[in-house]
Amino acid sequence: MVHVSATPVLALRGVSKRFGAVQALTDVELEVHAGEVVALVGDNGAGKSTLVKTIAGVHPIDDGVIEWEGRGVQINKPHDAQALGIATVYQDLALCDNIDVVGNLYLGRELRKRGILDEVEMERRSRELLTTLSIRIPSVRIPIASLSGGQRQTVAIARSMLGEPKLVILDEPTAALGVEQTAQVLDLVERLRERGHAVILISHNMADVKAVADKVAVLRLGRNNGVFDVKTTSQEEIISAITGATDNAVTRRAARNAEVQK
Amino acid sequence: MSTDKTSPADKADPTEPIHLDKPHEAPVDAPPAAGEAVTAVDPRLLVREQGFAGYLSEFKRKMKAGDLGSLPVVVGLIVIMAIFQSLNSNFLTAGNLSDISVAMVGTGMIATGIVFVLLLGEIDLSVGSVSGVAGATFAVLNVTHGMSEWLALVLAILTGTVAGAIHGFVFARIGVPAFAVTLAGLLFWNGFMLQVLGSNGTINLDSEGLVAKLTSYYFSDVAAAYGLAAVAVVAFFLTSFLDSRRREAAGVPSRPLSEIVLRTVLLAVPAVGAAAVYNQYKGLPLAVVLFLAVLVLTDFVLRRTAYGRKVFALGGSIEASRRAGINVVMIRTSIYAISGTFAAIGGLFLASKITAANQGAGSGELLMNAIAAAVIGGTSLFGGRGRTWNALLGVLVITSIQYGLALQGIASPIQYMITGGVLLATVVIDAVTRKTQKSAGRA
To answer: Could you tell me which SMART domains the record lists for this protein (chain A) (predicted)?
Structure first.
């Protein structure tokens, strides 16, 4: 269905991160290929956000190796990640309500012509970008405050696409959205994949994961708890990996009883 | 296009398949909207018709959505003028109107600086005192120490810049609330001014000097006022027209010629009217020319430069600005420096009116009037919304009330109460339109 290259765009090898007394990540492995959507799932506190922040350069890793297109790289600050071609869309979208769509898309990297904002060119390119992504919003000259939650999310994702990143990280993009908007965002994720971007998608919503992801990487208590192929894995298997259902009081008791009976 | 209201954005669109719990199967069918239209505009919403009808419907929609802009203050100004004219037929004479427009410039300059600060959603309480310091600095350097006028003028303005930059730095870098920093500034700079003026208390300026000329010089040639009006109208038309042509060429929505003509006429009527009024009296006042120049310049900086965009971004969301790589500390410090600079310029105009620097400068209602002018003009207190032209409209309202009541011989207690009422009404409008905008946001 989708061409997947041999060398992963991003590979984490044995990544560990410690905050004071808390071992947030232990020996985590993760691979993302171009044109692939990897869902990162796990319970609250499993280390999803920490892992994403290490990739985005917010928290430098303590141990392990980050490989970018096959070679080891250091990501120590957000700028390093951006320079490599990693774009992150955080849960709080960080858009300016009072500025229009074009202004938000180009915030911090305005196009200028002799020192003056080149509004016409920015508007033309914004329309082009939104059309390519099939994002439909009322007008590119409308303030963000007038858009619905889903439209804001799509604008935030489109904004991350401006730098032509190789890897896009989406942190809970559908968390606060209705049915229609969720579908729009998922469509957009699929379009990113078709255009050859690697995507890491953090989500709590199994339906979303099943709908768009190719692979599901499960984190549990800061460790890998399996990488599953979405097509061949049932939702129950993924959920039991998330909750650790294979390792709890009930299963341990069952195992003990089985031994006693022997 | 009242149908906008009835079709909220999140209403299900039949053309969009929803496949949530199904595993995805060839999901991306190109939405028809993107295919057939050149634009990425959602066909359900707000597609602005080209042409004049489109302009009208857009205007109506904006009004309904609470995007009132300067309309309330313009209506208010007309009402105020009508009331005072009916009370005293001297109000709308050329002499009175010309005096109002000269008297307003000092407060108006300070209000221009306040607009910058309000765009960040912050406040600057020190502008009154800083304006007093500028007047006193000029007087001491020029009159007492005999420094050349131009140098003293530049240094006086720079004192404002430095004072503002200090406030901004303490606020932005150290993180002290702007209210507290500028309140401290209010006290400090007032004391500083009194210290600089010394025991004497009042220093008279040369009544034929540079600063005195700021408010006393008139371009008496009839051609000056009409010429300026003509230049402004033609420049406005040409920039709008060329911009529209460029947009058309780039394939993005542009203003139709009819709309540009309408806007030009809307500008031409007050411009030529004001020129006629000035020419009936002493001519075009230098102070008004300088004020207009400042407004054009600041509006350009805020709307057409990356710096201005950053200011609006900070007023909208600090976190978003920070993530976009905007240097928050630098922008904030610079905004307070700008506010201080305009306070100093305003202070010089106020000193020019009375051709003296005295102990009362910058105190009393000046600070309140400057902030009120910015807000009455339509600058939002919540940050991120406003233009420097708001300062002109607001200060026009306040000065008109002052002069109108003075003509009636009504004392300042009543004046304060009326100005307070107008300010309250404006802030209520601001808060209500903000609410309306939020609720109409999805329309």
So the answer is: AAA (SM00382)
Contact A179/B at CB under 8 A? yes
Considering only CB atoms, which chain B residues are within 8 Å of A233? none
How far is residue A115's CA from residue B291's CA, in Å, rounded to a whole number? 24
Distance from C-alpha of A120 to C-alpha of B251, rounded to nearest angstrom: 9
pLDDT of res. B50 = 55
B56-72: average pLDDT: 71
Chain A touched by B39 (CB under 8 Å): yes
Q: Tell me which of B35 and A117 has the higher pLDDT.
A: A117
Query: Residue A180: which of B18, B42, B320 has the nearest Cβ?
Result: B18
Tens digit of pLDDT for each residue in B233-243? 999 999 999 99
Phi/psi-derived region of residue A69, left when phi > 0, alpha when psi is between -120 and 50, beta in every other case: left
Please name which of B155, B135, B271, B281 lies closest in space to residue B214, comparing C-alpha atoms.
B135
Q: Is B382 on the interface with A (CB under 8 A)?
A: no
ipTM of the complex: 0.77
Interior angle at CA A26, CA A22 and CA A30, nearest 5: 135
| The two three-digit tokens of residue A86, written as one number | 């990693």
- DSSP 8-state code for residue A142: S
* Token digits of residue A182: 């969720």
Token pair for B392:
């002109």
What per-residue confidence (pLDDT) applies to B392?
Answer: 94
Tell me if A184 sits within 8 A of B16, measured CB to CB: yes
Instruction: Give CA torsion, residues B427, B430, B436, B441, to 10 deg.
Output: -150
CA distance B44 to B258: 26
pTM of the model: 0.82
**Are B340 and B127 within 8 A, CB to CB?**
yes
What proportion of chain B, given as a percentage, has pLDDT over 90? 55
Alpha-carbon distance values, B168 to B176, B243, B316 (Å): 10, 36, 19
Structure tokens at B290: 């300088």
CA distance B355 to B337: 26
3-state secondary structure of B427: helix
